[in-house]
Write a structure and sequence with these properties.
Layout lengths: L2 E3 H8 L14 H8 L5 E3 L11 H18 L6 E4 L1 H11 L6 E2 L5 E2 L2 H6 L1 H6 E8 L5 E8 L4 E4 L5 H4 L11 H8 L22 E3 L10 E4 L6
Parallel strand pairs: 2-3, 3-8
Antiparallel strand pairs: 1-10, 4-5, 6-7, 7-8, 9-10
Helix pairs in contact: 2-3
Length: 226
């Protein structure tokens, strides 16, 4: 089943944009058609293979390449990569499929040494913040492109205002909310050709009662729901 956590949708909408889902298993022609309808991209968190030949990676790389090309032509096109999205951007830009390291913080992360030792990453991104895993090891938690409107966070800015799962201990303090508001991509007001590509064509499903569910609500793809 394909789904998008409602917190991403709310977060993007809070910046004044509308949401158009792009499915990872769309054909390149379909992806290009969707790209022509939008002017901002969010690569969300989750789990997927980040190797060439896998649908998620290939689709993400096509979108990133199109966004960079658009910016190079003077068409402002922002990207936000969150968690898996940051890892995806790191691999795409570095062209190194083993650049991520294991940390005691959920899953693979990007070490500072990997940025310093990879000229492509070092030339493309500024490291904005480092975080410590449970063992005290530092990893890169925020990246910002030097010449492009691209931001990548290993943390989830959409969760602070819109997720309330008690077991995740998500901070909802004034400082936490102020921090996430600085990350929201500005200027991505979508110009749509058809209303039938909007997220509202996907039925929402409340998932907050599930003990191990990390999101309060999901939008599930109508063709995937049975």
């Amino acid at each position: 089943m394909s789904y998008i956590a409602a917190s991403y949708v709310k977060w993007v909408e809070s910046a004044g944009a509308r949401v158009v889902p792009i499915l990872y298993d769309m054909s390149p022609a379909q992806v290009r058609a969707r790209f022509a309808m939008i002017n901002g991209l969010l690569l969300p968190g989750g789990g997927a293979s980040l190797r060439p030949g896998h649908q998620f990676y290939d689709t993400a790389k096509l979108l990133v390449d199109l966004a960079v090309e658009a910016n190079d032509k003077g068409d402002y096109f922002p990207i936000q990569g969150t968690c898996l999205g940051m890892e995806t951007l790191s691999i795409i830009i570095s062209r190194n499929y083993t650049i991520l390291s294991n940390f005691d913080a959920e899953d693979a992360r990007l070490a500072m040494s990997a940025v310093v030792e990879n000229p492509r990453l070092l030339d493309f991104f500024d490291v904005i913040s480092l975080s410590l895993d449970k063992s005290g090891n530092a990893y890169v938690s925020t990246l910002e492109a030097i010449r492009y409107p691209i931001v990548a966070t290993q943390w989830h800015p959409e969760k602070n205002p819109f997720e309330w799962t008690p077991s995740l201990h998500i901070p909802h303090t004034d400082n936490a909310l102020a921090a996430e508001q600085q990350v929201v991509v500005c200027g991505a007001v979508l110009q749509l050709q058809e209303d039938d590509v909007l997220i509202y064509n996907w039925p929402p499903s409340f998932t907050g009662r599930h003990e191990y569910e990390g999101e309060e609500k999901d939008f599930e793809h109508p063709l995937a729901a049975v």
